[in-house]
Amino acid sequence: MGTQVVRTNSTETERKPARLAPPPMYQVVLLNDDYTPMDFVIVVVQHVFGKSLEEASRIMLKVHHEGRGVVGVYTRDIAATRVESVIQLARMNQHPLQCIMEPVPPAD
User: Fold this and answer.
1) Is 24 part of any domain?
2) Which of 19, 73, 87, 95 lies 20 to 30 angstroms, CA to CA, from 11?
3) Looking at the domain assignment, is residue 72 inside a domain?
4) 2 falls within a domain
5) Domain containing 46 — which CATH number?
6) Comparing C-alpha atoms, which of 37, 86, 55 is closest to residue 100?
7) What pLDDT does residue 15 have?
């Protein structure tokens, strides 16, 4: 019994590696108000964003003096989760602290 050889035509295609763009980044920003205690803001920054006491104090003072302060830069889903965590903590403690996310401005 003989062996059968089956020949197939194969087409070689040149594949270029896919270039993926990095995901868009968003900055999480705390907004100043006249009612939320400074100590509470420090605790929130430490708890939600994992900042040290010194870094949390610096961010809190920036929010207090400039009206807003960037707490961190994340991908969209993580930024949205952090914003929601801040708002929930503030509401649970009856504070009007506001937190937003916005696209990172392009580098100049």
Assistant:
1) no
2) 19
3) yes
4) no
5) 3.30.1390.10
6) 86
7) 72
**Domain housing 83:** 37-103
How many domains are there within the chain?
1
**Whole-angstrom Cα distance, residue 92 to residue 90?**
6
Name the token pair of 90: 């503030």
User: Which pLDDT tens digit goes with each residue over 44-75?
Assistant: 999 999 999 999 999 999 999 999 999 999 99
State yes or no: pLDDT of 6 exceeds 70: no
Q: Which of 57, 38, 10 is closest to 95 using CA atoms?
A: 38
How far is Cα 1 from Cα 57, in angstroms, rounded to an integer? 86
For the ranges 17-31, 35-49, 65-79, the lowest mean pLDDT is seen at: 17-31
Structure tokens, 4:
């059968």
Rounded-to-integer distance, Cα 103 and Cα 80, Å: 12
